Design the sequence.
């Protein structure tokens, strides 16, 4: 049992059966940055052994890689892609030179575009859109640090950037 169930909406996969061999999904993953080397993984698990969040996730990195090869779309429901700290340890340890961290980035984007994201990420995106920053520093905090008042921020500029980049759309057709 992992602590993943308490982190967000991602639950344990224990005892769950998956639909496998979705060739279209596997092909889409091979189109991601680093995904072209996906099939070189021989499940040595060095990536998982070095992962600093391996005790916090509902599925290990090497298991993610296997799910991708097998075309298991449910991999987008794993918390591994969201809890990855992008430390690149898995990638550095991989004897096959697979760009694992890059693949995880791509999976995060793929999941987000399909409406799969932890509530905290969705809330942070909305806060950034509405306020132009994730944290609103107060004047008294800045006074304690002997800084000037909080500078004015052009929220419209931030909103425009987020809209141009398509970051306010969870799904492709939004």
Sequence:
């Amino acid at each position: 049992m992992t602590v993943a169930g308490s982190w967000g909406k991602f639950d344990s996969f224990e005892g769950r059966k998956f639909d496998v061999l979705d060739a279209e999904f596997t092909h889409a993953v091979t189109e991601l940055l680093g995904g072209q080397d996906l099939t070189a993984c021989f499940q040595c698990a060095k990536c998982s052994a070095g992962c600093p969040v391996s005790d916090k996730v509902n599925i290990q990195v090497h298991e993610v890689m296997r799910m991708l090869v097998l075309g298991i779309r449910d991999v987008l429901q794993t918390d591994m892609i969201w809890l990855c700290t992008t430390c690149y340890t898995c990638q550095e340890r991989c004897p096959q030179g697979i760009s694992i961290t890059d693949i995880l980035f791509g999976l995060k984007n793929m999941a987000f575009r399909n409406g799969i994201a932890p509530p905290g990420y969705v809330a942070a995106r909305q806060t950034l859109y509405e306020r132009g920053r994730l944290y609103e520093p107060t004047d008294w905090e800045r006074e304690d640090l002997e800084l000037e008042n909080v500078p004015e921020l052009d929220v419209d500029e931030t909103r425009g950037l987020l809209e141009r980049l398509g970051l306010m759309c969870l799904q492709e057709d939004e």
Notes: The radius of gyration is 19 Å. Residues 81 and 104 are 5 Å apart (CA to CA). The mean pLDDT is 83.
